[in-house]
């Protein structure tokens, strides 16, 4: 079987995606794709601004990701670079792992799949000292889902 060649300069056709700001976290926009309450799964696309980081946070639910476009820079709580994740790569996230992240020189678009396993709390937002300032819950996600679908 012959493999297809790589597509040079393949840019994501994203102008039709309903990007929304994310309350409490700057330098990104998101689009909720599906909220599957019975299975406890939330799928979303996130678009990161170029060369900017988002607020320190901690995933309380299993969060897996696929880098669709650009590169995603992962940072330790002290701001040092942990890892650069390139487009085309899949990662299984860890819980209880405080970090920040942000787009590389051209930004990034990342597909996330959050598996809550029935938990209500999804993400802790933290200050620079690692203290929790807010917690994102499934109620917040449902409200965003309703607003995005014009039902909120």
Can I get a quick summary?
This protein is mainly beta and 152 residues long. The chain contains one helix and ten strands.
Put simply, the count of helices is: 1
Terminal-residue CA separation:
49 Å
Average pLDDT, to the nearest integer? Answer: 90
Structural class based on helices, strands and sheet pairing: mainly beta
The number of domains:
1
The count of strands amounts to 10
What's the architecture, going by CATH? Sandwich
The proportion of strand residues reads over 45%
Broad CATH class: Mainly Beta
Oligomer: single chain
- CATH topology-level name: Jelly Rolls
Q: What is the fourth-level CATH superfamily?
A: Jelly Rolls
Please outline the major beta sheet: 7 strands, antiparallel
Q: Helix content range of the residues, please?
A: under 10%
Radius of gyration: 16 Å
Question: What report would you give on this structure?
Answer:
- This protein has 152 residues and is mainly beta.
- It has a single domain (24-137), classed as Jelly Rolls.
- Helix content is 7%, strand content 51%.
- It contains 1 helix and 10 strands; from the N terminus they run E-E-E-E-E-E-E-E-E-E-H.
- The strands form 2 sheets. Strands 1, 2, 3, 5, 6, 7 and 8 form a 7-stranded antiparallel sheet that branches. A 3-stranded antiparallel sheet has the order 4-9-10.
- The radius of gyration is 16 Å and the shape is globular.
How does the SSE layout of this entry go?
Layout: E1 20-22, E2 25-36, E3 41-48, E4 57-59, E5 62-75, E6 81-86, E7 90-92, E8 100-115, E9 121-126, E10 132-137, H1 138-148
